[in-house]
Every structure is written in C-alpha cells, then in structure tokens.
Recover the amino acids of this structure.
C-alpha cells in the first residue's frame, strides 16, 4: 500500500513511504472511519438521545465541523510527514509558534489508547456473535431468548475477557506484521459487502410493518427534548465516527502524495461513513418498534435487534454470520487507526521496532480494557460521573478529548499556519479554500467551544 515513489515536488518525505494511489488512501481512511461507530454506536446513542433532533444535529456537526477538521488533519499530516506528535511540534516551530503544539498529538495518542480499550471489548462481542450466528443460536428466537443470550454472555467476565483478548491479539498481530496490503484488499471488499448486507436488512425492515415509525423516530425532530448534553453527544459521535480529533487521520495524511485533492478525499470518506450510519439507523429502529423494544436500551441495542431479524429470515444463519464477520473486519480496520499514532510515535521517537511497539501499546490497551470488560458484569453496579467505567471512558474520549483535539487542530490549521502553507496543501486559494478557511477559523472552533461550554 505504501510505496516510496510518491511525488513530493522537492518537499518533505515520510519515513514510511507514501500511499500507492489516491484510492489506497481513501480506502484506508474509510476503513478507519467505518466501524462499530456507525453500526453499533450511532443507533444506540441516537436512541438514547431521543432520535430526530439528535440525528439532525449530528448531520450538521459532520458537515460543518467534521469536514473542516478532517481536512485540517490531513493537511497538517501531509505537511509534517511524521507521527502526529512530531508533526505538531515540527510545524508549530516552523510556523513561528511553539513546539508545545506536540501536546495535541499526545492527547491524541492517549485518546486512541483509551478508545481502543473499550472498542476492543465490543469488537470481542462481535467475534462471539459470529460463532453464535454460525451455530444457529438465533434461529426462530424471540426477544427474550435473544436478550438472555446477550445477558448470559456479557454477564460472564471470563468470556468477555477472552473475546477482548482475541480481538486485541488480532490487532497487535496486524500492526506488528504491517500487512497493510492485505487489509487494503479487505476494505476494498468489506465496505461494498457491508453495504449490500445492510440493504438486504433494509428490505427486511421495510417489510417489518413499522418502517415509517422508525423513519419518524430518526428524522422528526422533537427540539424541546434536545438538551446541551445531547448536542455534545452528537458532536462527540461526529468526531468518533469520522476518526477525527486524535491524529489518526493526521498519521494517514503523512503518507499522502502531494497531488491528491484533500477536499475530494475527505468528501468521499464523509459521504460513505454517513450513509452507512444512516442506513444502520433505518435498519435498527423499525426493528425496535416492530418488536416492542426500547430505543434507549443502550450498548446492547444492535446485539438485540439484528439477531432477532436474522432469526426470522430465510437464510438467516448465513446472513447473520456474514454480517458479524464483516462488522468484525470493520472494527479491525478501525482499530489499526486507533493504535497507529502511538505505534508510529514509539517507532520514530524511541527507536522501537514496529513489533515491539505494537506489543507494548497492545498490552497497555488490553489492561485498560479490563475496566470496560468488568463494567458489564462484576462492576456493573459501580457507577460514578457518567455511569460505569465503560460509560466514563466513552464519555471522556468521545465527548471531551476528541472535540478538544479537533478544536486545537482547527485553531492550528486556521490561525497558526500561514495562509500560504494551507493554500499550498489545499490546492490554491479558490472558493473551496475560502470555505474551508471560514469553517476552520470561525465556525468549527466556535461551534465546538459553545457546545463544550454549555454541556459541561
Ligand atoms: N471511526 C471508528 C468507528 O466509527 O468505529 C472509530 C475510530 C477509529 C475512532 C479510529 C478514532 C480512530 F482513530
């Protein structure tokens, strides 16, 4: 996937080479963006926040804040061509500000580690659901049976630890071996296949008799129910689902050839990611209403609704197994983005080999993940601030660290970097550039600040 023949026009080169094509970059970023955030998290967060109004705020956040942040991250990454910490330090000095901007990279590395600590636990559930689907556990099952299967599994801390361990091992293995080429192929196949399966599920949910109820729930805004807490959740979800605010996209941008349009690549990723999330909502909510479930039931929502649908479908065993395999792949390609900043940093800064770095970071994440493993069983009743340990790590990362990272990234790209540098990366000073600059200098940072200020 990375080659050393990227056109550099005499500029800085990445130590790791460059993407072989624009498509390779788009696939890698899409692989990072499309994951559990779209299919597992979006429906349950939307459900907990009352649907309609939340979804519209989320879409606004994606377009007005997510898009300029993503473009800023890529352009910073490409200009610095190092790991996010070194890049922020280098550009901070080069642009006449300070090397302290490296702290933005450091917050990002930490956010990636914390996010993967619980992401891996949920991805572990997906692995277990592949096996359960293949065994036919959901065939003809009613809602109570599916709930009992979920509760039985997540209630057993040893099983959850085991699946979390397997997922982390898979992630470390790929990062260590650097078999990106294989993963690029996986994404090339995975995203379209996931789309086809989601469309199959959509056909099913349209026929569930409750489709319009689901559509209504998702798109009819009840503004009076929308508090600042939900607006922050929408902003956090926009950051999470696009993988922005923590340097993952910056790390990928470091390998981007000079002649690739940052605007075009960002647009393609944002559209693909948003479509998959909306599609997931259109599948899940009609099923929720058709089965008399609660849209606000939380993290188990997808593991409750989808097996029910698969259980009643002809060929459900095959569809269900395939679906969870694809979801596991989607989670896997996202996990790589979450560790890349930390691994690239250990390699460049401390001279570690990629394998050593992957094992060190992976072990740390595995250990931190035990807090989330126990949140669903042994420590389920331990509640503080936002809820269980899992809830707190999720809240801290999605709702605080990522928006804060995004805020600093847009301020850096919009205010610290000079016009010439950013115009150079974004391909001239035309209308697109002007639009990006207004969003990155004013709308995005002010928007993030208002939401953070009011919600906390
Ligand atoms: N965007 C991923 C998802 O929606 O599942 C999660 C994620 C991956 C967040 C990579 C951040 C990141 F760097």
């Amino acid at each position: 996937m990375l080659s050393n023949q990227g056109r550099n026009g005499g500029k800085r080169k990445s130590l790791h080479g460059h993407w072989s094509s624009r498509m390779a970059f788009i696939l890698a970023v899409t692989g990072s963006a499309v994951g559990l955030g779209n299919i597992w998290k979006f429906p349950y967060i939307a459900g907990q926040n009352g649907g309609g109004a939340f979804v519209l705020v989320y879409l606004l956040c994606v377009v007005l804040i997510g898009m300029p942040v993503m473009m800023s991250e890529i352009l910073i990454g490409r200009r610095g061509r190092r790991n996010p910490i070194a890049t922020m330090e280098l550009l901070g000095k080069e642009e006449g500000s300070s090397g302290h901007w490296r702290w933005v990279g450091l917050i990002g590395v930490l956010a990636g580690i914390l996010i993967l600590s619980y992401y891996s636990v949920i991805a572990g559930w997906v692995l277990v659901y592949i096996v359960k689907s293949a065994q036919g556990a959901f065939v003809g099952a009613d809602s109570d049976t599916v709930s009992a299967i979920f509760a039985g599994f997540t209630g057993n801390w040893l099983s959850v630890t085991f699946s979390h361990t397997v997922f982390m091992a898979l992630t470390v293995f790929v990062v260590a071996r650097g078999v990106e080429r294989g993963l690029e192929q996986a994404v090339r196949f995975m995203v379209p296949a996931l789309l086809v399966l989601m469309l199959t599920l959509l056909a099913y949910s349209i026929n569930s008799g409750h489709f319009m109820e689901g559509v209504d729930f998702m798109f009819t805004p009840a503004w009076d129910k929308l508090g600042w807490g939900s607006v922050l959740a929408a902003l956090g979800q926009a950051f999470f689902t696009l993988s922005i605010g923590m340097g993952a996209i910056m790390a990928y941008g470091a390998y981007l050839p000079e002649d690739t349009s940052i605007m075009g690549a960002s647009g393609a990723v944002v559209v693909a990611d948003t479509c998959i999330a909306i599609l997931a909502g259109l599948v899940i909510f009609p099923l929720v209403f058709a089965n008399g479930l609660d849209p606000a039931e939380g993290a188990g929502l997808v593991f409750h609704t989808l097996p029910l649908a698969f259980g009643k479908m002809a060929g459900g065993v095959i569809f269900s197994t395939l679906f969870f395999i694809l979801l596991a792949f989607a989670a896997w390609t996202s996990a790589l983005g979450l560790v890349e900043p930390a691994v690239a940093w250990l390699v460049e800064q401390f001279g570690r080999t990629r394998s050593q770095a992957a094992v060190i970071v992976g072990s740390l994440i595995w250990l931190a993940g035990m807090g989330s493993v126990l949140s669903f069983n042994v420590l389920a009743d331990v509640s503080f601030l936002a809820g269980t340990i899992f809830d707190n790590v999720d809240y801290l990362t999605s709702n605080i660290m990522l928006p804060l990272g995004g805020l600093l990234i847009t301020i850096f790209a919009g205010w610290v970097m000079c016009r010439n540098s950013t115009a150079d990366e974004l391909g001239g000073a035309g209308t697109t550039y002007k639009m990006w600059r207004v969003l990155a200098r004013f709308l995005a940072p002010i928007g993030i600040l208002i939401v953070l200020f009011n919600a906390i």
Remarks:
- The chain has one domain: 22-455.
- DSSP finds 18 helices and two strands in the chain.
- Residues 32-33, 35-38, 112, 115, 240-241, 243, 246, 248, 334, 337-338 surround 4-fluoro-L-phenylalanine (CB under 6 Å).
